[in-house]
Amino acid sequence: MSSAALADEGTKAVAAGKYAEGIEKLSQALKERPAPLWLLERSKAYLRTNEFDLALHDAEKALQVAFSRANRDQMTEAQLRRAITLFRMGRYADADVCAFWATRLVEKAKATEDDGQQDKVDENGDYVVRASEVSNAEKMDRNQQIATAMGGGGNSKATSLKNQATSWRLQALNQLENLPAGHPGLKVNVVKYPNPSDKPGANPSTAVSAKDQGLDENAKRDSWKIVWNHFSSAFVAKSVRSSFYQTDTTINADFFVKNVPADRFAVSTQPQKVVMGPIANTGSNSDSLQLHLWGRVKPAETKYTVKSMKIELVLKKETPGKWPMLQREDSEGFTNIAGNTKVAPSFERFSTLISRLGYNHPDELNLPDVSIDLDGWYDALLGKLAAGLDEHGESSKIPNAITEATSSSASANGATQPKSNPTQASDSTPTTSKADSTKTVGSAQAYPTSSKKGVVNWDRIGDDDGDDESKEDADVNSFFQKLYKDADDDTRRAMMKSYIESNGTSLSTSWAEAKSKTYKTQPPDGAEAKKWDE
């Protein structure tokens, strides 16, 4: 099958939500040539499976190739994809800078212009651009956007990209306003045109030399791939599905596990870690649940309820504000807790974590024989991973701080072996609560629902990029509503007359033009206007 046919199948799989299949097909196609559009589709798929580092790598690789070909449209899409990925990673300043670069490309600015956007920081290095500046700039450009959106000419694709970029800028800058000074999300670390390696996930500071180990690099990779295959299968089979929603002050998480022994169940809370268990009567490491939290909480105010089908956990945030995710990005998929869908981490993420924890070969893990006792093997591996995550504490709370923190540590001290005790604390003394099987502990859900699909996480609606077209439509509608609200009486009359007479296909802001003109229905190309009685 040709690379183009593979890429087409991969793109269709991504559109259908079959992300693993899409990634596989697109990866095969990309072996033939690094087409920017294929890279962007794979980046989208990686993002929707929470493979943030790989999603960012593909977006930056697409930008690199598009820049070398002087393809402005693809450069714009790549910068926008970078912005969306960085937003999901909690790097809000970086997200705004990349979205700004996307708008400049749409505006036909010189691709290599030195706009200085990444240098807009204060003396502490915190990004100083705010949402009000973007809103004011959007007002100045509103007439041109209306004309294009209503079929008055111009490049509709460019306008669509600019609308999306502006929408993501506003989202990122609104998040920035909730961050305290010095927060990593306020720092700017991006460059306009990065030079990503051909091998995503490579980290020279922690990479193990095949020469030092006396192993061929391909053989070593194959040995780790066997471990990853077993881990992935066990993770899908044994991990606990979870969901969460939040307010500015609380985190509400549900863990869907049946028949928890409530009389023995307890929760141990540290400022950035929660250990719960037992959830069964096996007495193993996988018999407890560990959360490595994205932000800090108040241990003394932890509440929980054990029900027949799930555990409900309520945590009080130490600092009010929204979290981009429940757990630290580097811990996602490396405990026995899964999200709404059980998707194991990719091999690239797995090997990066293993390397960061200082393991050079599977034998160093000292795991049981997987062919004899898969459960025991998986339990032992979870213990090793938990110990390593504890070792790194809060250093990896913001994605991509992983490689930076490891780089400086590794270069100064060499590789660090993980702790052997998976429950050792990495913070202050935990607060432990005992379960009450006859009495509900905690508070009611903030968003009750009768839906069979369970609780909808309304606070995270809009955080995912899966509905880019919906975001675009909402952005345009919001823009028109704001335009009408801020307009004078003549402008409002012109807007109403043109919109009603044309059945919503034209919009004018000039009363001098509209008062003497009769507007006809002008459907978009490929559409046909019909009367209701036909």
Descriptive notes:
This protein has 534 residues and is an alpha+beta fold. The chain has 3 domains: 34-186, Alpha Horseshoe (Serine Threonine Protein Phosphatase 5, Tetratricopeptide repeat), CATH 1.25.40; 210-447, Immunoglobulin-like (Sandwich), CATH 2.60.40; 489-534, no CATH class. 43% of the residues lie in helices and 8% in strands. It is built from 17 helices and 9 strands. The strands form 2 sheets. A 5-stranded mixed β-sheet has the order 6-7-2-1-8. The protein has a 4-stranded antiparallel β-sheet with strand order 5-4-3-9, with helices on one face. A hairpin with a 4-residue loop joins strand 6 and strand 7 (311-316). The two termini are 48 Å apart. The relative contact order is 0.10. Mean pLDDT is 76; it is low at 201-215, 394-429, 435-448 and 458-473.
Instruction: Figure out the total of helices.
Output: 17
Q: If strands are numbered along the chain, what order do they take across the biggest sheet?
A: 6-7-2-1-8
- Overall number of structural domains: 3
Pairing-aware structural class of the strands and helices?
Answer: alpha+beta
Q: What is the percentage of strand-forming residues?
A: 5-15%
- The percentage helix is 40-55%
Radius of gyration: 26 Å
N- to C-terminal distance? 48 Å
The description of the largest β-sheet is:
5 strands, mixed
